[in-house]
Amino acid sequence: MKSNIHPAYRTVAFHDTSADAWFMVGSTIKTDRTVELDGKTWPFVPLDTSSASHPHYTGKQKDFAKEGSAHRFNERFGRFFSKTR
């Protein structure tokens, strides 16, 4: 490999702020922030969403398809269109 052209690969602490979960992952991301965990100082990157908080992975998805969009429409606006002209 050529020297001085590859990014530095190191362990980085990622913090999912919505689930308050910490992940230690090898990464080449650039960050100036640091955090102390387990007596060591690690580069730190905050996240809005990760597998700990994303609805697809947690199973806390909203189910809109149970009754269908036509049924939801009729529940909301059916009274306006049910009148005979």
Descriptive notes:
The chain has 85 residues and is α+β, with helices and mostly antiparallel strands. It has one domain (10-81). It has 2 helices and 4 strands, in the order ββββαα. It has helices at 55-58, 69-81; strands at 10-16, 21-27, 34-37, 40-47. It has a 4-stranded mixed sheet with strand order 2-1-4-3, with no helix packed on it. The longest helix has 13 residues, at 69-81. The protein is elongated. The N and C termini lie far apart (79 Å).
Secondary-structure map:
Elements: E1 10-16, E2 21-27, E3 34-37, E4 40-47, H1 55-58, H2 69-81
Parallel strand pairs: 1-4
Antiparallel strand pairs: 1-2, 3-4
Strand order of the largest sheet: 2-1-4-3
> From N to C, what is the helix and strand string?
EEEEHH
Unreliable stretches, pLDDT < 50, 5 or more residues? none
Q: Estimate the strand proportion.
A: 25-35%
Biggest β-sheet: count, sense, barrel? 4 strands, mixed
Distance between the termini: 79 Å
- Overall tally of structural domains: 1
| Average predicted local confidence, pLDDT | 83
Helix proportion: 10-25%
Mass-distribution shape = elongated
Number of strands: 4
Structural class designation: alpha+beta
Oligomer: single chain
Gyration radius from CA atoms, angstroms: 24 Å
Count of DSSP helices? 2
